[in-house]
Amino acid sequence: MKNIEVLSPVGSPESLIAAVRSGADAIYLGAKSFSARRNAANFDEDELLNTVSYCHKRNVKVYVTVNIMIKEKEVTEVIELLKHLNEAGVDAIIVQDLAVASLAREFFPDLPLHGSTQMSVQNPYALPVLKRLGIRRVVVAREMNRQQLQRFCLKAKEYDIEVEHFVHGALCMSVSGQCLLSAMIGSRSGNRGLCAQSCRLPFEVENGTGYDLSLKDSSLFKYVRELKEIGVSSLKIEGRMKRPEYIAIATKCCREAVDNNHVAEDLERQLKDIFSRSGFTDGYYKNELTREMFGIRTREDVLASKEVVNEIHEIYRNERQWIPLSFSFKARENQAMSLTVTDNDKEVTVTGPTPLIAASKLTDEQTIKTSLSRLGGTCYYLDNISFDIDEHLFIRNSTINSLRRAAIDKLDALKERNSYRQKEVTYDLKDKKHSLKDIYLRLTCKEQLPENLDKIRGVIIPIDSEITEPAEKLIVEIPRWINNTDYILERLKYFKDRKVKKTYCNNLAAVELANESGFEIMGGNFLNVANSLACKVLEKEKIQDITISAELDLNEIRSIKTPLNKGIIAYGKLPLMLLVNCPLKNGRDCGSCDQKGHITDRMGYRFPIRCHLKISELLNHTPIFLADRMTDLQGLDYLILYFTDETKAEVEAVITAYEKQENILNQYTRGLYYRSVL
C-alpha cells in the first residue's frame, strides 16, 4: 500500500522551512494572485522558483493553489500564471473554477490537476465529471463522515483519482464553495480568496452561546491509520495564514501519526497551545454533530500560544536528515575514481583523480565510509555503501570529501525541476444574442404555488416536493448536499415517470445524476460560474441554462459569452451558507425544532435558517429585489424569483411586481449586482 502523504500549508518563506523540516512530504502554497488565501504573504515568481528548488532537493512536492472563482477579465492573466507554474515545475495546481481546470488541461496537459475543496465535492457521482476535467486528485469536503468518506474513496479508486482529506485545522461553518456570507456583508468573497471570516463574529440563536457560527478546529490525527485503510492518499493540514510555529507542530504531529500511529502527549499539548478554539473536534468524521463542535478563541488560548512558541522552535531549528542514500565507490589503479549516489529515484555519478599507490598508509573501506557519511546540514543520510577498490591505494580525505560534495550537488540539481510540455494557447468562444424573456420561480412548498402560471417559464421545486403538475413547467432541484444517493435516484425516477424533463443542479454530482437519469439540466448559481470558459465546460456536460454566480455585478455578467441560456437570481433571500451542522442545535433539540429558526448578528439582523433533508441553509435577512431595474437586466435570458419563506400571496405579489416593473418592498437589497466582490 502506498504511504499516505503529509501535506502542509505554507504562507511565507519562514513557514516553508518549518513545514519541510518538521516532516512534510508535500506543501501547498499560493502565488501572489488567484489563491484562496489572498491575505497570506504568498510567493512571487522568484520566490516560487526558489521554493520548488528547495523542496525538490528534499523530495518534497509543491502544489500551488489557483483555487478561486475567475472573472472574465482575468482569464488572460490566469493563463500567464499557469504558464509560469508549468515552467517552474510545480508538482500540481489546485483549482476551483472549471475554467482554470479547462485551461490547464488543454494547454498544459502534463501539469497535474487537483480539485480544491472549494469545488464542494462530497458525493461519488462527482467523480466522472472530475475525470473528464482531468482532475487527478480531489480535496473532499471536510463535512464528510467516515462512512461517506469510505464510500467515496472506494469509488475514486475506480476512476484512478486520489483523495485528499483535511486532517487538522479550521472548519468553516459553511461547506466550502457554498458560502456567500462574507461577500454579501462586506463584498469580500470566500470564493475569491478574501473571506473576512464573518462567521467568527457574534451570531446568536435563541438560548445559544453567542458565537453560534464558530466551530472548533478539526483534528483527526488519531484516525490516521483508519484514513489510510479506507483509501485517503493525502492528509492535509489547514493554515496558510498561520505562523511558522503552528505549521511546524501540526506537521510534526501528522508525521508522528503516519510513522508511529501515535502522537506523543507533549506534542499534542504543544499543538493545542499554539492554536485552538478551546480544544478540537472530530464531530464531522464521527458523525456526532453536537453543540460540542462549537468554540471560540479565548483569552486562555491566546496566553497558551505565547508560552509555547520557543518550545516549538526546536522542532525545525535544524535540517531534517530523512532521505536515505546508497553510495557505490570505485577506485582502481590507473583509473579515475568514481562515486555513484542514488536516492531510490534518481542516480548520479561523479569522477575524480586517479588514486595514488600507497607508500606506507593504505586507505581502507572504513576510512572512505567515514568521509562519505559526513552529510550533516543536508537532508540525506548514508543508508548503505558498496566498494570496488584495489587494496594498495592511498586516497586523500579531501578528495573523498570533494567527490561527496560534487555528487550531492549533482543529485540536487537533477531533482530541482519537473519538465512539462505546453501547447499553444488559443481558444475561441461562441455567443448568442441574449434577450430577457423568461421568468422562473423557485418554490419551497406546494402552498406557495401560484394559481396562474401562464407567464412563468418554469417552476423549480424541491426533490421531495408533492407538486407534480403542470409537468411541462416543473424543474426538480437536486440538493446541494446529497446525503442519500439512492433516495435522489428514486425521486428522479418518480418525476421522470410523471413526464418532468428538467433538473436544477448546483454541484457536479447533481449534474452527473441528472445526465444519467436522462434529464435536461439548468445549472444553479452555486456552480460558481463567473466566466465564459466555465460555461463552455458545462455545455459539454449537457447543461442548457446557466445561472451566473450572484457574486458578479451586472456588467461582469453581461461580458460572459455563451450559447447557453444565461440568467440570475433576481429576487429572494439568497442562501448564504450550506450547513451540515445546524447552529440551531446550540439552543434547541432537533426533535422539537420546527425547522424555521433564525440567527441574529451583532447589528440585530435576523437571518432565517431553514432545514431540509437533514441539511440547513442560512438565508440572507433581506431579499434581493430588481423588479424596478428590469431595463438593467438586458443581456440575460431569464430571471429566477427565489422564494423561501414567503406566503402564496407574497409570491403572487412579487410576480406581479416583476411583470409591472415596480417596487413594492420597503426593505430589500440589490445584492452584489451593482457592487460585485473583490
For CATH, the homologous superfamily of the largest domain is named as Aldolase class I
User: How many H/I helical runs?
Assistant: 19
CATH topology of the largest domain: TIM Barrel
Q: Largest sheet, order of strands side by side?
A: 1-2-3-4-5-6-7-10
Hey, roughly how much beta strand do the residues contain?
Answer: 15-25%
- Structural class comes to alpha/beta
- Report on the biggest sheet: 8 strands, parallel, barrel
Task: Compute the separation of the termini in Å.
Answer: 44 Å
> What is the helical fraction, as a range of percent?
25-40%
Architecture of the largest domain in CATH? Answer: Alpha-Beta Barrel
Number of domains: 3
General form:
elongated
Number of strands: 30
**In CATH, what is the class of the largest domain?**
Alpha Beta
